[in-house]
Design brief:
The chain is 66% helix and 0% strand. By secondary structure, it is mostly helical.
Length: 85
């Protein structure tokens, strides 16, 4: 399985932000080991309302599901981690 570069992760993040979860999911599924890819993967499932699957992906990147945190704030956290502001 190939490692995703920052550009692909940014693309997945923007797709997630635009509500195109299917596109974001296709991108992050290409790398199931990268911490940021797993984090975006978790967020995709969170946005879909699939909290069980989301929790699994959060655990893969050493995070936890925070339902009370607005999605837009979490997107900002991921953008910051990617060095995109």
């Amino acid at each position: 399985m190939a490692s995703l570069g920052k550009e692909a992760l940014r693309e997945a993040l923007e797709a997630c932000r635009a509500g195109d979860w299917a596109r974001a999911h296709r991108i992050v599924m290409k790398d199931e080991k990268d911490e940021l890819a797993c984090w975006i993967h978790a967020l995709v499932h969170r946005q879909e309302g699939d909290f069980q699957n989301s929790s699994y992906w959060y655990s893969r990147c050493g995070r936890r599901l925070r339902k009370a945190l607005p999605v837009e704030e979490e997107l900002g956290e991921i953008r910051e981690a990617l060095g995109t502001r």
